[in-house]
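haha ok so turns out i had the wrong file open the whole time. this is the CORRECT one, sorry everyone. sequence first:
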Amino acid sequence: MSTVTPRGICFDLDGTLVDSLPDIIDSFLHGFTHHGLPAPSVAEVRALIGQPLEDMYTRFAPEHATTLCVAYREHYPLNFHRRSRPFPGVERVLGTLRERGYLLAVATTKRGDMARRFVDAMGLGGLLHHVQGTDGFPHKPAPDVIHHALKALGTGGLWMVGDTTLDLRAGRAAGLKTYAVTWGTHAQEELATATPDELQPDLERLLHHLPPLV
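then structure:
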C-alpha cells in the first residue's frame, strides 16, 4: 500500500473560482440575436450552466444547435473578460493552499485551450498547477475530467470544489470529498440535493479541512 499522501484539490472554474456567468450568458444569447431566433430568458440559460454547450443549445433550438455553437465560439473568446472577475478571496485561498503543500487543478467543462486562456486572463494561472478542460471525453457528472486533472498533477485527490450538482456528482464519482459554494450557478437548496460534504457561501471553510502538509 502506498504511503504517499494525496495532495490534489480540483476546482470547477466558472461560478466557482470566477464570477463569469454574465459574460457566458451574453455570449450564449448572442447567437440567437445574430441569427434572428427567439432567445430564452437569462434564468432559463443560467439553470443549464455547467452542461456541455451543445446540450444547452439543443434544449432551446435543436435544429440550430450546431450553428449557435459556432456563433458562441466566435463571440465568447473576444468578450469573456468584459465583466468576469475572480470571486472575493479566491487568490488568497489558492495561494494559501499552495503554500501548505497542496497541488491545485481546474477541472472544467470548458475546452482546454479556452480554459487556460481564461485562467491566465483572470490572473489565476500562477496559482494553479494544472488547468484541465473537457476535450474528447465525457462531461461532468462523469468523473473523467477530474481523473485527467489528478493524473496531470501526479497525485491522489482530496476535494472537488464546485458550484453545481454536476460538479458535486463528478467529485463523488471520482472518490473525492465535495465542497459546494453558493455564490455561483445553483442555489443552496439545489446543491444540497447532491449531499456535499461542505455547503458554504465562500471558500474559507476549505482551509479548515486542509492544514499544512508536513
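The CA atoms of residues 20 and 84 lie 4 Å apart.
again sry for the mixup
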